[in-house]
Every structure is written in structure tokens, then in C-alpha cells.
Amino acid sequence: MAQVPYTKIAGLPPExxxxxxxxxxxxxxxxxxxxxxxxxxxxTSDSFDRAGSTTDLQTTxxxxxxxxxxxxxxxxxxxxxxxxxxxxxxxxxxYSTDFTGxxxxxxxxxxxxxxxxxxxxxxxxxxxxxxxxxRVTDNSNFYFFVIDVGPAGTTFNxxxxxxxxxxxxxxxxxxxxxxxxxxxxxxxxLVGSVLTAYGNGVAIWVGSDTAHSxxxxxxxxxxxxxxxxxxxxxxxxxxxxxxxxxxx
Length: 248
Known about the structure:
By secondary structure, the protein is mainly beta. The chain has one domain: Jelly Rolls, CATH 2.60.120.560. It has one helix at 14-33, and strands at 42-46, 72-74, 78-82, 92-96, 101-108, 114-121, 128-138, 141-149, 156-164, 167-176, 183-191, 194-199, 202-208, 217-224, 238-246. The strands form 2 sheets. Strands 1, 3, 4, 6, 11, 12, 13 and 15 form an 8-stranded antiparallel sheet that branches. The chain has a 7-stranded antiparallel sheet with strand order 2-5-14-7-8-9-10, with no helix packed on it. Strand 11 (183-191) and strand 12 (194-199) form a beta hairpin. The protein starts with 13 loop residues before the first helix and ends with a strand. The model is unreliable at 1-6 and 226-236 (pLDDT under 50).
């Protein structure tokens, strides 16, 4: 895909200008991850650009395409929508708690085979994982593609795996250079037993697994291994943004 230049908008404060440019660059990564300029067939999508909430995620806004669907969550913890962070133009879904284990947020799109992609703020929350979940039954049964944070909070891995009856198995793991405070875009496609993972628009793994074959709920989630973990104000919690769930 040809490089599309960003054109500054006259009259905006510098911080708002930078936020819009970051959003523009995220959208270019999403388009590249989707395979170029052709429009995917959307099942649902969510920009999270709506009224703030400290209790739930409400419903997808279908901002990029698809149908508006209700969010459901599994596991213990606080999910919400932040629209008051600095800069004020920044709006995103957030999660904050010190509960140990997996927590997921998902929508039922009615399709087993999907492509799921989403952007994530890279936060060095030691021993945490955050990313995409797919074919979710509950927080003990699903596939995942996540960013793993090392115990010192300074190293990162891409990781694909599955949780079956609460037991976790890693299918793929690879070290990746990410900058804390930056943004990463993850995409996972599922077609029958074939899973393909993309990190920042690049295909990094293709594999096969049959553990979860009939579920139609997909979304995002996080794992907290214990200790301090993610928590605090809207500016320090795990951040999730720009969800697309489309035909693969």
C-alpha cells in the first residue's frame, strides 16, 4: 500500500495535533494488517469514542462498520470507557484491578471464523499480558494473542496460545522490540483449525489447533500474574482501542 502522508490541521493545540496524528498512523497500520486498501466485511467494530464509564463497556459503536453488539465480560475486575485522559481527545477501553488470572471482554458476532484486530497501549506492567481473545466460552476456555510483559516490565514478547479448562498452553512465542508508552496493533485470524497472528501488520505465525471450534464470541483480554500489576487512574491502566471483527 502506498504511503499516505498526514496533513496537519490548522489551529489545533500541539497536543491535540499529536494525538490525531497518532490515531491516523494507527488507522494506517490497521488497513495494512487487513491486507491493503480493500474494505473488509465487518461483523462489528468499536472506536470506544463515547461517554465515559467506570463500570462497563456498554455496546460496540460500529464506527468502522458492522452491527452494534453488547459487550460481556468474564473474570473479576473493572472494565470501563475513558474519555477524560490527557490529552482529552484520547478515548479508549480500560481495565484496572489486581485480580490474578485471565479476564476477558467479548461480543457474540455469530461467526466462528473471523479476523480480530485491535490496538493496545504498550505498558510495562510487570508479568502482565494483554491482547486479543477468540472463540471464548468463558475465562477458562479460549484462544489468545497477547503482548507478554517480562518480570522487570522492560521486555516484551508476542505470544499465541489457548486456555482449556483453565490450563494454559503456549502455541507460539517470540521476543519483540516495543516501546513502553507506544502503541501496538495485533491481529488474529481463525479459519477452521488454522490460526494466523500478525504483529504491527506483519504475519509472524501460522499454526493449527482444534481445541476451540464452535464458539462465536471474540474480543480482548488480559492476564495478571500477581503482585502490583495494572491499576490506578485512567492514565496508568491497560488501554484497548480501535477493535475490528471482520470476515477472515
